[in-house]
Structure formats: C-alpha cells, structure tokens
Specification:
About 30% of the residues lie in helices and about 35% in strands. It is α+β, with helices and mostly antiparallel strands. Strands 1-2-3-4 form a 4-stranded mixed β-sheet, covered by helices on one side. Helix 3 links the parallel strand 3 and strand 4. The longest helix has 18 residues. The radius of gyration is 14 Å and the shape is globular.
C-alpha cells in the first residue's frame, strides 16, 4: 500500500504535480524526506528536508551517502544540512 511508503500528508512534497518527482530520502523502505543538491566550485552541497527529525543513525547514513555521491561526481569538499 502506497500510504505505508509515503504518508498522504507528505505526498505533495514528493509529487508536486506536472510529472515532477523530487529526490526522496528513503529510510527502511519509506519516504522520510526530500533532498536537493547543488554542485559548486567549493564542492557538493546537499540539503535534506526531512518529514520528521532525523535520528543520529539516519544522519550518519545521509553523511555516508553524500560522501559516496561526492566521490562518484569527483567533487571537492562535501557538505550537507537539514532544511
């Protein structure tokens, strides 16, 4: 059932309309927020907009994912923040 993976209250944050699907943070098989990234000369900047506060374990997972993304894209310093 879709509601288990994406609560109705957050549907518009993931699917705003017009065929757009925002990048989504998935935790244990369910949508936990959205994210966006920006590449600049200084490196990679990732902003995570969680649906609820992130646990320390999820924060570590996000940091690991951002680092892996930076390595794949061959960027400089990496940074991420919660919106």
């Amino acid at each position: 059932q879709r509601a288990r993976m994406l609560p109705e209250a957050h549907k518009r944050q993931v699917f705003p309309g017009g065929g757009i699907i925002h990048p989504t943070l998935i935790v244990e098989g369910a949508a936990a927020g959205t994210w966006q990234w920006q590449r600049a000369k200084a490196g990679l900047s990732v902003t995570v907009s969680p649906f609820a506060p992130l646990t320390p374990a999820v924060q570590r997972g996000v940091a690991d994912a951002v680092e892996a993304m930076g390595q794949f894209l061959e960027t400089g310093p990496l940074a991420w923040r919660e919106a």
